[in-house]
Input
Amino acid sequence: MIQLLFILLLVPLGAGGLLLLFSGVSQQRSARWIALGGSLVALALSLQLAADYRALQAEQGVSASDSPIAPRVEYRRTWEIIGDTSTPGAAADAIKLEFHFGLDGISVVMIVLTALLGVVCVLSSWDAITERESEFYAALLILQSGVIGVFCAFDAVLFYVFFEFTLIPLFFLIAIWGGPQRRYAAVKFFLYTLAGSLVTLLGIITLIGYAAKGGLTSPCSLPELAAWYQAHPMDPWLQVGVFAALSVGFLIKVPVFPFHTWLPLAHVEAPTAGSILLAGVLLKLGTYGFLRFCLPMLPDACLTVGLPAAAILSVIGIVYGSLCALIQRDVKKLVAYSSVAHLGFCMLGLFALNVEGMTGGVLQMVNHGLSTGALFLIVGMFYERYHTRMMDDLGGLASRLPLMAAGMVFICMASVGLPGLNGFPGEMLSLAGMFKRNPLYAAAGATGLVLGAWYLLTMLQFVFFGPLKEPAVHHHDHDRHGPIRDISFRELAALLPLAAACLWIGVRPQPLIDVIRPDIEAVAKLYDGRPPVDLKALAVAKVQQRSGQEQ
Amino acid sequence: MTSSLLANLLTEPPGVAHYMTVGAVMFVCGAMCMATKRNALGVLMGIELVLNGANLNFIAFGSKYLDNGGPQLGLDGSLIALFVIVLAAAEAAVALAIALNFYNNHDSIDVDRADQLQG
Amino acid sequence: MATAIEQLTNGVHFLAPELILVVAVCVMFLTGPFFVTEAGVGAPGLRKRWGALALVAIGCAGFVWWTSDAVRPLDTGPFRADALTWYVRGLTLALGALISIVLVDQIDDGHSAESQACLLAILVGVNLTALANDLIVLFLALELVSIPTYVLLYLPRRGEANQEAAIKYMLLSIFSSAIVLYGMCMLYGAAGTTNLAGIAEVFSAGKSDGAATLVRLSVALLIAGLSFRLGAVPFHFYAPDVFQGIPSAAAAMLSYVPKMVGFAALLRLLPLVDGLGVTEAVSGPSAQMLIAALAIATMTIGNLLALRQDNLYRLMAYSSVAHAGYMMIGLVVQSENSDVSGVGALLFYLATYALITIGVFALFAGVSSDKSPVRTVSDLAGMSRIHPAVALALAVCLFSLTGLPPTVGMLGKLNLFLASWGEGTTLGRSLAIVLAVNAAISAWYYLRLIGVMFFDTAPAGEKSKLTLAPAVAGTLCSVASILLFISPQQLWEAAVKFVP
Output
């Protein structure tokens, strides 16, 4: 099974490398076929992987490991031993980096999502990208590999490596194939996230260094690290410090309210495929980071500081994102702001710190990937037709593009959280979990549901209903593009799987929940009946102790 | 402190401290010379002063005729001085070659004329 | 106790790689003039032959280095071969070969013999610095690097800019050597011997407590003089001017050799006075704080000044200043407090930085030609269309300088982070934070270069032709930086073996 994972990791990378290698010489139009092949193979492999994982899970039952992070499949190989390796005694103190890949329920789900969106991305760029095609698809596939790498890395440094690596292909995707302000958007996105993740690196290094000093022999391995911190918790104040450092990078990536400014810009400027991947999986790297680092290793900090801080910021993000979405005239920007709001729900769920909330949070990660990905896809479709995304230029498209309108309505309903579609279980579980923790935050977050319905329905009304309004400017292009047609077979092939997945999760979320549940329970167990730490009293006691020593 | 040091220097018989003082003065003079002279040859002279200031120290430290109050020193000091003299000659040879070429191009050996590279 | 002559004869087999290079240098200097006309013009293609000869000499030296395991940990003679020597030798020879390849096409046939000979002499000087166990040898080795450097900066192109760069470098370099010499004479005065092992013995026995002021002064002078070699602030100001005026092979050499020499000398000299019972004032805090302050100033100023450069070579000069600052962190970290050795992190970083920066200059040389020289940032415009492979390799190198995966630059920075943050002191942590901030700042100007290559369109006109040898050398560097990222263990073990 681990071989399957490696093949899955290498197929997009290999296809991307191939495209890059022959970028100058190949027939340009053949690039997209190679890319489609690569991403379809990756999707098939990931589905096989998920099936295998289900079988394994059924066979093993409850995981034997008592660590909060317990991958069921693992591969470990020494990468670099940093430290003095001259004597065996000294080598035991050294910090060992490993190629440590693994799979648990959460990573399997995220990997399938990534592979699915990979295919959608290729299909969505089919006609839209006409320039430097092989490089485009190469960047897309390499990005996909990098993201899969993040989800299956179980070594702290390896995680960071993939986390950073994803910046590079996305930077090129935005800066070469993006909109008019692409250079600025790409650089802002890159520097913003890079600066954040450097601070995160300091946090990771503290985690590693503390455990290494404490005698853990392989302090970079996430399962061992989490188990170690369960047995030897850090001083709560130190936990808060490390939590803050780790959070900077993750919060920017998610992005949570005050750190979100790069996102709308990046989305608006990115090509459709870039937006789909960015919203669909790259933003999840932030929440995934919280799930892998903060929640299992720093329980006191998460409970005492993380819970209120994350909840308040998420609530602000939900309301603020929704209000911003409400006033946007650019549909793509509207969807971008809706991302900020939806990820607020996700954070709210994760930081409920109980099984319901965290399950909801992870579901929300998947749901947001599916529905926002589909929204960007449809926005891309009518942008391709009309070369505008402004609500004021468009109206009543339902009469001209009935199939597309139907798709848009369906996806909007999913995004709003209509029962029976995928948004519903995720948001409900998140809010229910948070309600158990603190009803106030949950109630405040719930206003986002109403606002979400408001801005999406307003957008639908403007663009798809009412009297037909099409931009006149582009009629002269029609001899190039042909008359405006409804959804083509290729576009349908991209949209249908997403819609089907939305419906499936909405109707039967249980199989998905079963896959992720054991891993979430292992983390949530840490918070069962854990009292919050009185940080202030602790600090006072420390000061008193110090002055006592001096006397 | 300073005045007593000066008084000691003036009243005591010549020792390492005196040579070090001279060496320091040579070093500073050389450094000033390198910093202020615009003529390449003047700068080269400054270089010689600076190197020989250090040389003087080496020889003074190594001399068995001077009481330095420390351990008995061997020939190391004199040896290093010899090496430095040879090195200074080598350096001067290269420097003069470059200065000559500079003159051929600029019709002057004013180093301030070298001002193309900045920004 | 053996006499000096005996010591020297015993030492000969420790010097075998250097002796091979010196023989090659003599052959080139002596026979070179016979192959050129009186006007100084050589037969076309002559430079390739001299380049091949230099490569053969480096190859022989490398073979001797590889087969020798001559490690005499502590010796009283003038030479001392230990893990540092082994590491520096290997690194210098490998990188020297790369520089030699780049140099081939940057000199005219008439001056090729001398230029290659100077390069080899510089390599010998670097190796001797790491071999030195005596102040005399150390100073001679430093000068063996400096003097051929002046000639090498001067020879390849006799333009005015070239001359000016050579003159500026020469004057400042001589001055810095004089400061080092002055520091050495103080050290000699305090310890009474020029032998490094002897000095260590005297200091650790506490026999020279009376000379605390001398030692303190000498440490300050040595650090000041050697920071010129490192390119550390406030002795960095020559770097941009000099880099701007010289061809890329010389720039590649300048961004590696002086740093290696400076760090090797500091690694030999600082342990003598650091932590040994001279005085509290010198041991520990003061020297450490001085270097820490220099490191912070160096990386911050280097990066900030690099932000607004339009000339590629000036930009790379400031980048090399900034990287010197990163590396100095390794000197500050006290290895006994940290799981990760600071010196090991420094030596690892130095190797990777040198590899990458030589790669960058080699690629510049590869796409540059007399008709369309690549000297400013805008000259790179549209490179991804004209030479996609070179643009990709250059992008890998630049990402590596930024410290992004999957390149070895990321591991270099990670080691420094682990070493400084793991030390656990306020000083170590603040250094790590400054390093993080600087890494983010530096991303801006490296990204800018990548942006120009990939997103700008090339100006109309004649496309530059690829010079194959340097382009291949540079591509090798970028491939090596990815391979080293995947399996860094050998390099790390070699780097960490040396504990001062």
